[in-house]
Design goal:
Layout lengths: L7 H7 L3 H10 L4 E2 H5 L6 H13 L3 E6 L2 E6 L2 H31 L4
Antiparallel strand pairs: 1-3, 2-3
Length: 111
């Protein structure tokens, strides 16, 4: 089994665009064709394909050609990298805020 590394910078860049986030939300329901994914958006297919290229290069999605139809799938693995990073940030901020709270409680009576 190949272990892949996911770049949080690439993932965050890919998710920085509302169109790409909507595509991810749609794929959260299940795999679908490129044409079905593109139908809610009022943009030309080449422009929409640029969004899919960014999502695919970030490894958030992958595609498979079935006959004449390209099907898009959501890859959930890069999201765990983001989740771990966000959890680490949250933990560090909670520790700092608890330390500040303790400091303020100790110094409250000394002023």
């Amino acid at each position: 089994m190949v272990k892949r590394n996911y770049s949080i910078d690439v993932v965050l860049h890919a998710l920085s665009d509302p169109t790409r986030r909507q595509v991810i939300e749609r794929l959260g329901i299940g795999p679908t064709s490129v044409s079905d994914l593109a139908s809610p958006f009022s943009m030309a297919m080449p422009s929409f394909m640029q969004h899919l290229d960014i999502l695919e290069s970030s490894q958030l999605i992958y595609t498979e050609k079935v006959g004449r139809v390209r099907i898009c799938y959501l890859n959930q693995n890069p999201f765990s990298v983001m989740e771990n990073w966000l959890q680490l940030q949250k933990s560090q901020w909670e520790t700092r805020l608890n330390q500040l709270d303790s400091f303020l409680l100790k110094t409250r009576g000394k002023t």
